[in-house]
Amino acid sequence: MNSIKQFSQLIILFFVCSLSSFSQIKTPKDKLSLNSGTIDNQFEFVIQKSYTYKGNGKVYKNVEYHWLTQLKAHTIDTLKAVRKDLSDTQLVVKQQGKEISDLKSNLSNTQIDLDKTNSEKDNMALFGVQMSKSSYNILMWAIIAGLLALLLFFIFKFKNSNSITKEARRALAEIEEEFEDHRKVALEREQKVRRQLQDEINKQKGV
User: Fold this and answer.
1) Measured between alpha carbons, how far is 139 from 146 in angstroms, rounded to an integer?
2) Are the C-beta atoms of residues 67 and 46 closer than 8 Å to each other?
3) Residue 95, strand partner residues
4) Counting Cβ atoms within 10 Å, is residue 15 exposed (0-12), middle (13-18) or buried (19+)?
5) Which of 171, 166, 188, 189 is nearest to 23 (CA)?
6) Of 28, 36, 173, 188, which is least surrounded by CB within 10 A?
7) How far is CA 200 from the centre of its chain?
8) With the C-alpha atoms ordered 172, 176, 181, 186, is the resulting torsion angle positive or negative?
9) Are 52 and 60 in contact (CB under 8 A)?
10) How far is CA 22 from the centre of its chain?
């Protein structure tokens, strides 16, 4: 069960790291696609494949509308996947919290049993085997040490899961902000293109 949890956490961490690292890699123009690759590469596809023209000393891009809608759909799918990973991580954190609580309860019960045993005879039977009180104490303290080690391990995993959750949330916020910025830039470009087109139409009518 712990191996499955660790594997799922590694997948989430890999996904978050991939979003940030892959966004910095420049893909060759002939390999860009609007149907595959990272969101950054898909934006790069739209930028590189859109029609470029100059006017009034500036460079403009004419972006096809269906590219924007397709890019929007892919971005939303990516955000949904990140949200699902966040939800899965929170579930893991909740389960680990319960396991830590159970370990604390078990540790408390073990300590009570140990105190009760120390008040009995020097020699006692454990699982049908006679042993001295000192040997019994050593065995019980070894069990407690093992439980404490497990408790510390799950506390560490719990804190690590919180760290992964915070990082995933931060990555999600960055993706949403990046998408909003790209959307605004695309709308501004589209508005500029429409204004220029209208200006050209007006000039033609004036002729």
Assistant:
1) 11
2) yes
3) none
4) middle
5) 171
6) 28
7) 48
8) positive
9) yes
10) 15
For the chain, how long is the longest CA-to-CA vector?
Answer: 115
Q: pLDDT tens for residues 126-164?
A: 666 666 767 777 888 888 999 999 999 888 888 888 888
Total count of residues recorded for the chain: 207
Q: Is the pTM of this model over 0.70?
A: no
Decide if 35 contacts 187 (C-beta within 8 A).
no
pLDDT at 147: 92
Please name which of 109, 98, 107, 111 lies closest in space to residue 157, comparing C-alpha atoms.
98
Residues 70-122: tens digit of each pLDDT: 888 888 888 888 888 888 998 899 888 888 888 888 888 888 888 777 666 55
Both tokens of 139, joined, read 């065995």
Paired tokens of 101: 């609580």
CB-CB contact of 100 with 152 (8 Å): no
DSSP state of 29: G
